[in-house]
């Protein structure tokens, strides 16, 4: 009973954190900070997948979304400018 | 109000109506429409493929063409990156 | 991309074997536990990308060229499609699991999570797809990091 309630509370908290991280990724002018916000959003999403009993999707999301996408974004930002033009 | 804004409002209204109807016409959560195929796979996956992990037996055996398409996508992406970035190398 | 400081290099050198072993475990146990070739390959490619970020792309390109990664990826694709065609030859149809049921390699029918010698052609397909995903994803990141130059900004 208590564990079920705790799982329900986590199900409510983690999507709110995902939306907050996505909003930060849109708002930030520093593109490196925006890429880190995308990585945090992806990590929280993999945690949500794990709670929803899909551990293989969680592994794939943590590997691809949180590491390789961030690496590719940082490489792309390095080749252009760091600050976003207003 | 210019004509472009009117066209944009009409377009977004149509798209929103489509999305709302699509959301209303989905099956309820936890109640899929045709459970016969799912029940067949759940019952027979250990005896037919020998694998304990049902997801892997579906991905590599029952629905192997999906994995073949995914492998093709990855191969195409790698070949495209190699071809695209070759001219930048000194 | 030049390398980072000595602390980052040491920590990533210590962490890299554990990440690689975990990814290879996910690939090898793909028919028993959650995961498979794609997930394990993504984990191993993430570890290789960590080494790439820590040591710099010039050092990493001195260790392994993109030609070798291309050859590895082609081997993975040929292995995958070849196993599918072997199902057509020895069995009845494309993607037929032809190894299960007989007393050969991986031939047993598993009832439980402890027996790794089960599931017929599925572990071999997992190995092929894992090799393909490792070489593909790491090759994409390596080529992009090596050929683009830093332009403005403070990042190396």
Notes on the protein architecture:
The complex is a heterotrimer of chains A (86), B (90) and C (156). With 86 residues, chain A is an all-alpha fold. Helices cover 84% and strands 0% of the residues of chain A. Chain A is elongated. Chain B has 90 residues and is mostly helical. Chain B has one domain (3-85). In chain B, α2 (35-49) crosses α3 (54-62). Chain C has 156 residues and is an all-alpha fold. Chain C has one domain. Chains in contact: A-C, B-C. The interface between B and C is large, with 30 and 46 residues.
In brief, what are we looking at here?
The complex is a heterotrimer of chains A (86), B (90) and C (156). Chain A is an all-alpha fold.
Q: What are the main properties of this structure?
A:
heterotrimer; B: 90 residues; mainly alpha; 4 helices; 76% helix; C: 156 residues
Write the layout of secondary structure elements.
The complex is a heterotrimer of chains A (86), B (90) and C (156).
Chain A lengths: L1 H26 L3 H21 L3 H25 L7
Helix pairs in contact in A: 1-2, 2-3
Chain B lengths: L2 H22 L10 H15 L4 H9 L1 H22 L5
Helix pairs in contact in B: 2-3, 3-4
Chain C lengths: L5 H23 L8 H19 L1 H7 L2 H25 L31 H26 L9
Could you say which overall geometry of chain C the principal axes of the C-alpha atoms support? elongated
Strand percent estimate of chain C: under 5%
The poorly predicted ranges of chain A are: none
Largest interface: B-C, 30 and 46 residues
Helical fraction of chain C equals 55-70%
> What level of helicity do the residues of chain A show?
over 70%
- Shape field of chain A: elongated
How many helices of chain A does DSSP assign?
3
> Percent of residues of chain A in beta strands?
under 5%
Cα-based radius of gyration of chain A, to the nearest Å: 15 Å
Counting structural domains of chain A, the number is: 1
> How many domains of chain C?
1
* Uncertain residue ranges of chain C: none
